[in-house]
Amino acid sequence: MTSEQPVPVPITLVSGPLGAGKTTLVNRLLADPGDRRIAVVVNDMGEINVDAELLADQSEEGIVDLSNGCICCRLQDDLVTEITRLAEVREFDYLVVEASGISEPIPIARTLTVGTDEASLPERFTLDTTVSVVDAYGFWKAFDPEESLPDAAPDPERPLTEVLVDQIEFCDVLLLNKCDMVHDDELDAVEGAIRELQPRATVHRTTYSDVDPTAVLETGRFDFEAAQRRQGWKETLAGTENESPGHDSHGHDHGDGRSAADAHGVESLVYRSEDPFHPVRFDAWLDDWDGDVVRAKGFVWVASRPDTVLGVSQAGPTVQAGPIGEWGEDDPATRFVVIGRSLDGVTAQLDDCLVRDGDSVPSADADPFPREANQSP
Ligand SMILES: Nc1nc2c(ncn2[C@@H]2O[C@H](COP(=O)(O)OP(=O)(O)OP(=O)(O)O)[C@@H](O)[C@H]2O)c(=O)[nH]1
């Protein structure tokens, strides 16, 4: 008698820089899964996983939220543990893993194929496709168009450039997203540069990550052997093997034991307040992003809308803010994650936006919200 082997559950790993459109893609996959039952692991480096909350509306039970660290380094074991646990409590036949924007994809792919020192994924999982979502509009902010690629040296002033290069180089499918924000001739230039870095991947030009699910699910394109040959992959392996016994690491570091965030000079803060913002002052602050804020997102309480949750999302030069629901039984409270460099002044700036005694507050009809994507060069 032959016992039937269970069909391995394929995994799609979604990487890409902060705010490129990864969650937008995952939401699309959840909304249009075909006959698949999709589960999702979503990783955010902030203490609050806003992405998980935004996804939760669509498919609460199959979402696993890994926050406050990144799954390429500190949370590697947690990634394995959570996927294993998810498989025990829920039936699904496809797994999508959304990495945080500063995660390097190679160590995650390694975890998803060979596991960590501490744990390995059950054999019933197989890494099927690695996808990178790249922001076409923000691309030249990381690369100097005057430099020839791929020899352009990483610019120390742009610490995420190296991660972006990894994300571009290490993928089977690349979504060149936010095409609505870039002229066609510029898109050709961006795609040309990407091709220099990544000749192998299939590139799709997308707006709001709108791609046929079959382009990113069950492509069977992840090639373990090819991935192993890659320099970055080897470095990751070597880093693990050279660790001394008892070294308290998760198998990967960023060259000197620092976390991904430290290595790239990125920090995150969570701004919380149980007092509302003055809508006009907060709106003015949104107009005046400090260049060092790479990404900000969260749930905001403005005094002009006592019952309304204002969703705010900034990625590079794009800022969106509008009602996304009601506070309901929850006490209104702002929870706002800011990611960037030199964030020392941000908390004080946001404190300045809170309503003060004697302020006159406009009604919801007269406040600046919703504000649609606001782009400034
Ligand atoms: N104009 C425009 N905006 C987009 C597009 N795709 C996504 N966005 C917006 O960009 C912002 C960031 O999108 P997300 O999908 O949250 O990006 P992300 O990569 O998951 O972000 P992180 O998890 O912070 O790294 C949101 O406000 C999206 O609505 C696009 O093609 N065009």
TrEMBL record:
Q: Does the keyword rRNA processing apply?
A: no
Could you tell me the keywords of this UniProt record? Chaperone, Hydrolase, Nucleotide-binding
The record places domain CobW C-terminal at: 266-354
**Which InterPro entries does its entry note?**
CobW-likC_sf, CobW-like_C, CobW/HypB/UreG_nucleotide-bd, P-loop_NTPase, Zn_Chap_cDPG_Synth
Catalytic reaction list: GTP + H2O = GDP + phosphate + H(+)
| Region: Disordered, residue numbers | 238-260, 357-377
CDD domains in UniProt = CobW-like
User: The organism sits in which domain of life?
Assistant: Archaea
Q: Where along the chain is composition biased (Basic and acidic residues)?
A: 244-260
Q: Which family does it belong to?
A: Belongs to the SIMIBI class G3E GTPase family. ZNG1 subfamily.
Matching entries from PANTHER family are given as: COBW DOMAIN-CONTAINING PROTEIN DDB_G0274527, ZINC-REGULATED GTPASE METALLOPROTEIN ACTIVATOR 1
- Full protein name: GTP-binding protein
Species of origin reads Haloarcula saliterrae
